[in-house]
Design a protein that fits this description.
about 45% strand; single chain
């Protein structure tokens, strides 16, 4: 996984958008995620989905499911993972999007809404953009491609 050096703060009432174009050869035995995290590059961002409570707002798939979901935690109180309704398809390019409108966070797959949630997100905390991929516990190894990641925030 790679964490960026840019610092971003989510602010109530201000919009934030993040998008990633990705392709993976295995959507059910693989973890693919991106988002914002207060953790540093020495911590495994893929652990955010299951083992670590941290300031995080992330989008991706979990090992065992092709459904694109969202994870949010503020102040290390425990992560909330919400499964989406849209799936990734193996060996197909997808654009995954995250929109925080200052109140709720929404996840999009190829421009179609997958899930919206009003879970508490980390605000007024310095967060770093990250992406990570992790092969699941199966016998095979997935091939993952990331074309781009971009973000924009309202001032």
């Amino acid at each position: 996984a790679i964490c960026g050096t840019k610092s971003i703060q989510l602010i109530s009432g201000k919009k934030f958008m993040m998008e990633m174009r990705v392709r993976t050869s295995d959507v059910t035995d693989n973890v693919v995620q991106f988002g914002l995290s207060a953790l540093t590059a020495v911590t495994n961002p893929e652990d955010l989905w299951t083992t670590t409570a941290a300031d995080v707002l992330a989008v991706g798939i979990l090992d065992g499911s092709a459904l694109v979901g969202i994870l949010a935690d503020e102040g290390n109180v425990g992560t909330a993972a919400i499964a989406g309704t849209r799936s990734m398809v193996a060996d197909t390019w997808h654009i995954l999007g995250l929109l925080y409108d200052g109140i709720a966070a929404s996840v999009y797959v190829d421009g179609k809404l997958s899930v919206t949630t009003s879970v508490t997100v980390p605000e007024a905390v310095a967060l770093a953009p990250f992406f990570g991929v992790l092969n699941g516990n199966g016998a095979g190894a997935a091939t993952n491609y990331i074309d781009y990641i971009r973000w924009s925030s309202e001032r």
